[in-house]
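Thread title: Can someone regenerate the structure for this chain?

I was given the following input by a collaborator and told the matching structure tokens would be attached. They weren't. Posting the sequence so someone can regenerate them.
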Amino acid sequence: RLHLVTWNVGTASPPPDVTSLLQLDSLGPTMDMYVIGLQEVNSRITNFLSDLAFDDPWSIFFMTVLSPLGYIKLSSVRMQGLLLLIFVKHTHLPFIRDIHTHYTRTGLYGYWGNKGGVTIRMSLYGHTICFMNCHLPAHMENTEQRLDDFEKILEMQFEGENIPSTLDHDVLFWFGDLNFRIADYGIHFVRESINNKRYNLLWEKDQLNMAKKKEAFLQDFIEGPLQFKPTYKFDLYSDVYDTSEKKRKPAWTDRILWRVKNLCQHASKEGEFSEEEQTISVTLNNYISHMSYGISDHKPVTGTFGLELKPLLSDPLVTLSPVGEWSAEHDVLINYSAVPEFPSSAWDWIGLFKVTFRHANDYVTYAWVEDDEVSSNKDSKQVYMSAAEIPDMGGDFLLCYYSNNLQSIVGISQPFQIQPNRTLIGKDLAQEESSWMQKPDNLESHADF
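Best answer:
Regenerated them for you:
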């Protein structure tokens, strides 16, 4: 279950609440993955430099919302105002590998990053998936420029060996402020059609729909029906279309499309391709806009998908677990074992994380798998953590194995409890008692004054 968001936030700060945007109030099963593509994130130079050193306010905001619900930030990529974030449930982490990011500038002939695309790709249970968040050129007359820019973004190559090109991924999601407009019809006809909810009258003049019929490189992209109002351009904090002097014509600028590679390859061989052969399928469950958000002149759009995967990977590379009861009163041990083909490294480490951790660097403490090893046999190894590193107050925690070669978490333990440090609690109680015993003297001395 994948929930994808695209939103041109118009340099605004995050809103107070995103419950409906992320469908957190949905009665159905929870999402496995959130993919959030933003455009026009505030990129004034001071903001951008501070965001390079620290997470930007939008990333922190979504981490704060999603980490208590058991999601971690898997990856992110930013290019000026373009930001792409991926959050995933803990349980899937060991089956997500080969994560790479890329960005392509197309503004000012490729020298400026105000327009272009940011991309994250990965292997998910052995299937290659690519997410591409784009902000294409504005204005009615720039359709050809939009198409040229998207073609350029599609041609980009990830750094690294044996990584497929974007169109060679099993599934490619393309979304963002694509800036396609409604051609030919005047503003009055467009607004009247919208007011009467006769959106179908406008579909054939939507520039992206028209381009999909003509351009070969677009024909394999699929989109759900546009059964929501055009999402641009609104007066701020309202659902009223542009009342400024420019009176921009409404348009479906904010879109989500996808492409399944094996469907493209077999589309021409109808009848030869059985359902059993297909190892991955994508189903769109929901494609809607969210009219209640008014921080920018665009409304956010979300697509909720079901990805059905026949797992090519069903075993984690590393399995690990805590040994015995853990507390800060003594050193503790971790058991782990790896599959024979696992490419281990001296730089691999095991981190202790709170169950609500935000990302891979959000560990409480860690142990190097080689330097802190205490025993080893052909089936498993043991690593120790010092008592001094274990949180005194205890709580609910996880262990994660981080692979330096794969640059990702490749093993995760079941949640477990660390017991509070009884020695420390005893000391705290003794200190409280002694300070309480002294209080009457203090009160008397104050009374003398």
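The helical segments are 45-53, 57-66, 143-154, 187-195, 200-203, 207-214, 261-266, 422-448.
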